[in-house]
Amino acid sequence: MAKLSKRFAKKAFSNLKIIRVYTFIGVSLFLALSSFGQKHATISGLVKDTTGTPLGNIRIMAAGSRESAITGIDGKYTLHVASEVPLKIEFRYLTILQKEIDIDKLTPGQVFQLSDVVLPGNFDATGVTITDSSRRKNRYMEVINPHNYEYIPNVSGGIEGTIKMLAGVSSNNELSSQYSVRGGNYDENLVYINDIEIYRPQLVRAGQEEGLSIVNSDMVQNLLFSAGGFEARYGDKMSSVLDIHYKEPDSFALRTNFSLLGASGEVEGASKDGRLKYMVGVRYRSSKYLLNSLDVQGDYQPSFVDGQAYLSYDITDRLRVSYLSYYGNNYYLSVPQSETTQFGTATQAVQLVVAFDGQQILQYATYLNGLTFDYHPNKKNDIKFITSFYTIDESENYDILGAYQLQELNNQLGTTGFGKANYTFGYGEFLYHARDSYYSTIYNNEVKGFHTLNDKIDVQWGIKFQHEHVEASLNEYHYIDSVDYSVPQSVDPRTGLRTVLNVNSYLYSRLSGDWNRYMGYAEGTYRIMPQYNSYLTLGARGNYWDFNHEFLLSPRAQFAFEPNADFNRRVIMGGYDDSIQKKSIRLRAATGIYQQPPFFKELIAPDGTFVPGIKAQKSAQAVIGSDVTFKMWNRPFKWTTEIYYKYIWDLIPYKVDDVHITYLGNNNAIGYATGIDFQLNGELVKEAPSWLSLSLLSTQQNLIGDSYVKTDPVSGKQSTVYPGFIPRPTDQRVRFSLFFQDYLPKHPSYKVHLNLVFGSGLPFGPPGTLNVYGDTLRLPPYERVDIGFSKLFWDRSKQKSNIKALKYFRSIWFSIEVFNLLQINNTLSYLWVQDVNGGEWAVPSYLTSRRLNFQLELKF
Q1: CB atoms closer than 10 angstroms to residue 272
Q2: Contact indicator for 283, 303 with CB cutoff of 8 Å
């Protein structure tokens, strides 16, 4: 015990020294770099029309400056401007100047409150319609301003890096952009970009193979997120919806970003008359730098490239056409050479040494083209037509041969051979083989409408046709040989002799098909008590798939109530309302049926058998939540609480390895998920938004009619065991995350960003078994701390300089990030090997270790 205490103290002291060293290096470096004077002021206020209704989507800017602000759905804005110079503040809608206000010189650091600005123009054609529609659509969703959190230090990066920090969202793999929500798996989340649904790759097994997510965070204007209880207008999945909208730029801008993990560039602009708007983004990413920190050493050649464009054109004041195009090519080559992994306990330390031969090649390409016509005949009506064509082409080929040794390590502190191998007690070989390909095209046509009937009622509806073509060829097997004893084998019961050599697991499948889906929804929202800003939304979805001839009807309802609406201001993450003077409360509830029709992976059983009769998984959900908005330390905060319960039937059990999901091919289970989520958003440090979240979850399932025979080791008596409810693979009981920002008091351009995550262990069990009730073990907790130090060297809207070269830049930003600051070995999964006695050993596969990253961002 004394040795263990000494070892623990030594490790804790070492981690403390590491934190102090990195903090010292980061702060010292930034303070040593040359900085520019911080000469800026801030203007904030409210924009409304002649009726007193707040106006959204109004752009505010100082004449001669490219920096601007856009009013939110509550009509509020905050604009950073230069100080010590006269200002002319412009208010524009669709690039059309609506009003100008002259302001005298402001002093550095001054916060100027501009009295309410009334725009007398006529916005009935499009302006008020778009604003009002957006305001109504956001009643039940969490509104996130991604630009306030674009510098979160995390490996996966992008919008998903932010989503994984929210309450109810879980991810135990920093290399993956995938996430699970409230007990659901990766396949249960809806993602939309400009109303076009996005699909996941189907063959990807590991997070390190994923490459780039289709969402380009440089192009995002805003996003909405719901962890459950979403409206009928959203699709047929059981867990969450992420609704992303790209920017509508009104002036030219160029943004580039460079780091040790890749590079990106984005250009945007608009025509002189403001009718044409465009954005083009390209990205390159290579995770080789991160993969070299894994236990498996070898030649990693990942290359992930994509490009996308978004164009919109106002044909008339009432008709807009937009086009979204995407191409992504993700290539992953791995040639493993050796692996040395140490694991075990203080009393038995073990080391696995593997020599590899072979390689893995994964390539998947994604194509997307979407065309949208948005027609606003008047203020009260909006009709949209969307057509899209989505293609996924994937291939996976690998032959990996490994020869391994299991060694016991000397764990006696102070001895000569401490940490060295005492002896080898296990030998063996394994072979992994795959020749997989997947190709699909998904074609969509959709029409949707929004109509305001009167001041209290509005209606939404939509119909959608989707055609899918799928071709897949799967051929996989795994083989294990331990000291010339191949397992598993067939044994002749008469002679006891081994007769047939079997592979450990085998999958062979061929699938080709064309099928159609027909979908539609209708919902109405009624403003019950206007004085309390209370809304009731009732709706339903219909879905029919001609492959299994199953018709699904999903009624849903949402309710929101604000007892003190006069004081309530929506607190968007990073966009708080400084006028809040007293606590306000918003209560909400949602319930409904959420059903998920099968796609591709649900149709394939673990042995490759095609399952044509598989049905949709179904759930009944109830959510009750509250938002409490208040001021603390004279700064705004929002405390969110949500309690939820899901009952699931026709459930398809599955097993997870890394991010690869294997469905068991039957709707033979029922289940549930229940829990509570807490989230606090606020300025722990003034003008530096932060948040923390805590989630408590229990999700279990019961396979109908399952049982197994258990033999008593002493008496030899056998008995039948009925497992009943058992944890699902996503049963993460506790999840905590914290994102914290701070800056030097007299130098706000020097910032620190801290990202901390803790998640309790997930269930797992031995491989090669389809009995999910064998997953009785738990992975170690997922613990991770990432930290970043950033410096804004130049911001043209806030600073002046005599350096001529700086006139070409809007801003220059640099950061140093330390991933996995505490060097924690997080376990992703296990490799199961055998010793000479036939005993199985679970060898942990660790995620990435500590890495240092640099980023440079230039905006023109």
Answers
A1: 7
A2: no
- Look at phi and psi of residue 563 and say left if phi exceeds 0, alpha if psi is from -120 to 50, else beta: alpha
- Locate 186 and state its tokens: 């990766």
Cα separation values, 752 from 164, 766, 852, Å: 20, 42, 15
How far apart (Å, rounded) are the C-alpha atoms in residues 324 and 443? 14
| H/E element, 713 | none
What CA–CA distances, in Å, run from 37 to 6, 61, 802, 808? 50, 22, 12, 18
Task: Show the tokens assigned to 32.
Answer: 């040593």
d(CA 650, CA 469): 25
**What is the predicted pLDDT for the residue at 13?**
40
Question: Quick one: CA dihedral 793, 798, 802, 808, positive or negative?
Answer: positive
- CA 147: distance to chain centroid? 15
Please name which of 689, 671, 669, 670 lies closest in space to residue 679, comparing C-alpha atoms: 689
User: What are phi and psi for residue 622, nearest 5 degrees?
Assistant: -140, 135
> What is the C-alpha to C-alpha distance for residues 818 and 821, in angstroms, rounded to an integer?
6
3-state helix, strand, coil in the chain (%, to 5): 10, 60, 35
Which region, left, alpha or beta, applies to residue 181 given φ > 0 means left and ψ of -120 to 50 means alpha?
beta
At 809-837, the pLDDT tens digits run 888 889 999 999 999 999 988 888 777 66
Q: Model confidence over 769-802: pLDDT tens digits?
A: 566 777 778 999 999 999 999 888 877 766 676 6
Mean pLDDT for all residues in the chain: 82
Strand partners, 492: none
Tokens describing residue 218: 């440089």
For residue 442, give Cα distances in angstroms to 429, 469, 516: 42, 7, 10
**Tens-place pLDDT, residues 547-579:** 999 999 999 999 998 876 544 343 333 333 444
Q: What is the dihedral of CA 714, 717, 722, 728, to 10 degrees?
A: 30
User: Which position has the token pair 């399932």?
Assistant: 701
